[in-house]
Design a protein that fits this description.
Blueprint: H1 7-12, E1 18-19, E2 23-27, H2 34-44, E3 48-50, E4 54-55, E5 70-71, H3 74-82, E6 86-92, E7 95-100, H4 101-109, E8 113-116, H5 120-130, E9 134-140, H6 144-153, H7 159-173, E10 181-184, H8 188-203, E11 209-210, H9 212-219
Parallel strand pairs: 2-8, 2-9, 3-8, 4-5, 9-10
Antiparallel strand pairs: 1-11, 4-7, 6-7
Helix pairs in contact: 2-8, 6-7
Length: 223
Amino acid sequence: MNAATPSFALSVRAPGVKSRGLMLVLSSPSGAGKSTISRALLAKDSAIELSVSATTRAPRPGEVDGRDYHFIDRARFEDMVARGGMLEHARVFDNYYGTPKGPVEAALGSGKDVLFDVDWQGTQQLAQNARADLVSIFILPPSLEELERRLIGRAQDSDEVVRKRMAKAGDEMSHFREYDYIIVNTVVEDSVQAVEAILAAERLKRDRQVGLADFVNGLRGEG
């Protein structure tokens, strides 16, 4: 059995048919639980890997090239953008961040799914450049009060930063219509199961099952 593919997926897939991977985007306002859900999904499902972004900023202590980011200079980054080698990119202050197209295409072609942690603007660019491969999910908090409680409870930000994140959350949530699926993250375990259910259905979409036509033709005696 292929260790990178859940057993139930193999049991319902036609013999000899392979699956093209998909690009899974999880977006949310800060504190809604996106990172927690992503970590749980990566730990449970070996058929999905985290996208590694490229950046022009210098590595921070402990960061490893190719694991945390692909660290490249500005000239190379701009050349990749000009040649269509980035699926999405953005400038943050004085540095560029983006998703190199090559590694993602290689993963999808091998049947691996790729998980993206991008905002609504990055999701828009992915949709423009690779809509057929994209599955997007927006994570909502059950209430603003709960969102604020989570931001305060994780004790990572000052009161001022929490206020700024809360103010930004409204704008981020206004883009929910641009996503394929919406999950209200009340209970993390339920939210993870919901993402797994979406993945299970999306992996079985007809256009992602490579070689399905030949299998069906064989069933019809036309092979």
